[in-house]
Write a structure and sequence with these properties.
The complex is a heterodimer of chains A (157) and B (231).
Chain A: E1 2-4, E2 10-18, E3 22-26, H1 43-46, E4 50-57, E5 63-72, E6 80-87, E7 91-97, E8 107-114, E9 121-130, E10 141-151
Antiparallel strand pairs in A: 1-2, 2-10, 3-4, 4-5, 5-6, 6-7, 7-8, 8-9, 9-10
Chain B: H1 2-24, E1 42-49, E2 57-59, E3 84-92, E4 98-108, E5 120-129, E6 133-142, H2 144-156, E7 161-169, E8 171-173, E9 180-187, E10 193-206, E11 210-222, H3 224-230
Antiparallel strand pairs in B: 1-11, 2-3, 3-4, 4-5, 5-6, 6-8, 6-9, 7-10, 9-10, 10-11
The chains are: A mainly beta (157), B alpha+beta (231).
């Protein structure tokens, strides 16, 4: 669901139900990899980089795309946390997150670029991890992503 | 009766001519030479095995001829993503060493128009290169040449396979020269916007299990002034 804001932008919420929406967790510790048989390159090749792939849901619990989240704390050019969301019917969003979460538990980020429906938009993204969701469908935890995007004003005549 | 037979033969001949013209149309196809081969920018070549069984992870809707891997990987069976596949691979530099990790998410495009020789897919690469940074590559790919020169001949073969030499630039946009759009995310690549192309080189394909011998390559132009301005 998309809500339009007073400034003309829109706010949209996505979420990921864990563990069932997790497609991959690749990280140096093979015991924590998902799927268990994943053969992740050694830390000598890709350091402490962690890559995750998820299915992305909208507010109606419908899977609408896939997304990758990559992060590294020890990268020599600086730590990073990023999302790349691929929504087949609409386009993709590339987001760079702040390393430190805010006091209220959110991690804020900025959209770096977008494609197709998102190509002319800019804005911010908030990420929130909810540890205890326990519901009847087997969802144990959840990642919520909220995008606040706005189009450019264009040239004034 | 003879008129019915004539009409039938005419329709069959017309349909056969249409299919032949459609399949053999010499005016469609993908280039073999990258438009970035004449760029003045520094060019980074990243290569990878495009055979799904060589990948770290490959998954799709689970009913294609290609088997998802590794075992027990989640399949993308939901309606909105059942035309999407995800491919995770090690990227190698020009000396064969590990350059980084690439995650490719690809979906069939609604703009596909086979009559114009366009079997399109929208794809993004999310790439991490240790010591350099991260980037996203956004591209439209055209698989018509691959379908026409590799997949269909494999189907026609009595052994259900194809062997030969195929090399094409798969990227067809969104850049005006048929290039992909690259957005740098972090590290030395933060803020960089540039172009790239992806090409495929195939030598073997099985109609029963998909690519047998196929390599991919990402050619990325890195504008030095943009990288320098970040430092």
């Amino acid at each position: 669901m998309i809500s339009v804001q007073p400034n003309g932008g829109n706010v949209e919420e996505f979420h990921i139900n864990l563990p069932r929406d997790r497609v991959m967790v690749g990280l140096p510790n093979p015991d924590a990899a998902i799927p268990a048989a994943l053969q992740w390159p050694g830390s000598e090749a890709v350091g402490d980089m962690q890559a995750e792939i998820f299915k992305i849901r909208d507010r109606n619990e419908t899977v609408i795309g896939v997304g990758s989240r990559i992060a590294s704390a020890a990268e020599s050019t600086g730590p990073f946390i990023e999302w790349s969301l691929h929504l087949p019917a609409r386009g993709s969003i590339y987001v760079k997150m702040e390393i430190t979460p805010s006091a209220d538990g959110f991690r804020n980020g900025a959209m770096v670029s977008g494609t197709r429906d998102f190509a002319e938009l800019s804005g911010s993204v908030r990420e929130l991890f909810i540890a205890d969701v326990a519901d009847s469908a087997g969802v144990q935890s959840q990642i919520q992503l909220q995008t606040a995007l706005v189009g450019s004003l264009g040239d004034l005549e | 009766m003879k008129y019915v037979i004539s009409i039938g033969l005419g329709l069959l001949t017309g349909a056969a001519l249409f299919v032949a013209g459609f399949y053999l149309n010499p005016f469609v196809g993908q280039p073999m030479v990258s438009p970035l081969s004449v760029t003045d920018d520094r060019v980074v070549e990243l290569s990878f095995s495009a055979v799904p069984s060589d990948a770290i992870l490959y998954t799709d809707h689970g009913e294609s001829i290609v088997t998802p891997r590794p075992d027990r990987v989640a399949e993308l069976w939901e309606p909105a993503v059942d035309d999407t596949d995800v491919f995770v691979t090690v990227l190698q530099d020009s000396r064969g060493g590990t350059a980084g990790i690439g995650i490719k998410m690809r979906s069939k495009s609604e703009d596909t128009a086979l009559i114009r020789g366009q079997a399109l897919a929208n794809s993004v690469w999310h790439i991490y290169l240790p010591g350099q940074g991260t980037m996203m590559i956004d591209q439209t790919e055209n698989y018509w040449s691959y379908i026409r020169e590799v997949m269909i001949p494999a189907r026609w073969s009595s052994g259900d396979n194809w062997r030969g030499t195929f090399h094409r630039v798969m990227t067809s946009g969104p850049g005006s020269l048929g290039t992909a759009r690259v957005s740098g995310g972090s590290g030395e690549l933060a803020g960089v916007t540039t172009e790239s192309v992806e090409s495929l080189t195939a030598a073997g394909y099985s109609a029963a299990s998909g690519p047998v011998s196929m390599d991919g390559s990402l050619t990325i132009a890195i504008p030095q002034q943009q990288v320098a301005s970040q430092e």
